[in-house]
Amino acid sequence: MSLSTVAAIVGALSVKFWPFQSASSVSSPSGYVCNLDYTPEILSTEPLMIYLNNFLSPYEIDHLLAFNSNWTYVPEITDPEGNVRRRTSGYTIIEDKPDEVTNCIVRRADTLVGFIPSQGLELLQIGRTQQGEQHPLHWDYLLEPELNSEGKLCNRAASFFIFLSDVAEGGETYFPYLDAPHADLPVNEKKFRRPKHKDSAGMMLRPVKGNGVFWMNMYKNGTLEERSRHAGMMVKKGTKYGLNILVEQCV
């Protein structure tokens, strides 16, 4: 298995971008109105990581989950250290046929990306983790960048992960190299939790429907930000759905 497959457990394909549309606010016959508002909350500056409160509305989540899904699985992953890890969660790609809802979600993500150099977003991906499944430690960054149609090398400069469901137990997104808040600082236990083992580091983000997180995967010079490594913890009760939005940078 190639290192590009190893690093892109989220589902590496040949680079194909989401087709942006010019409208920043789109209404539909159903009465849906695009609203670009959400509440950001800085979790870390090194690496840059921003928690996103109410990034998706219940209507938008229902719309995403209504897409017909053919789930793809990558059962075994060999990480860069040579360890074989088992990924049991699946993912599906939303094909590049924008409607008023998916267009609005992409525009909302683009407002946060702002002036970060990028060539656009990959096609939207929905992940599903059922009870007993997990997604082991990985980077979204590709150790072997992929070529776009213009022959340029592309990599995932940044990532969004948005929870599309609550989970009764488990299913946290774990960043072991993220500096956790000092023990004396209060933590919103509905959204975050510290690892239970006293020697464990980092921060866990609980699945909260509609909320999510944005983080940088690489430095300005294009090299890997190793602290962006993360995992989807085992779902112990329920099913976890999440939306991946990946920001591409090509050189």
Write the layout of secondary structure elements.
Layout: H1 3-7, E1 39-45, E2 48-53, H2 58-65, E3 72-73, E4 76-78, E5 84-86, E6 90-93, H3 100-113, E7 120-121, E8 125-129, E9 135-138, E10 146-147, E11 153-163, E12 169-170, E13 173-175, E14 192-193, E15 203-205, E16 212-216, E17 230-232, E18 235-237, E19 240-250
Antiparallel strand pairs: 1-2, 2-16, 3-6, 4-5, 6-8, 7-19, 8-19, 9-17, 10-11, 11-16, 11-19, 12-18, 13-15, 13-17, 14-15
Please outline what is shown here.
The chain is mainly beta and 251 residues long. It is built from 3 helices and 19 strands. Strand 4 (76-78) and strand 5 (84-86) form a beta hairpin.
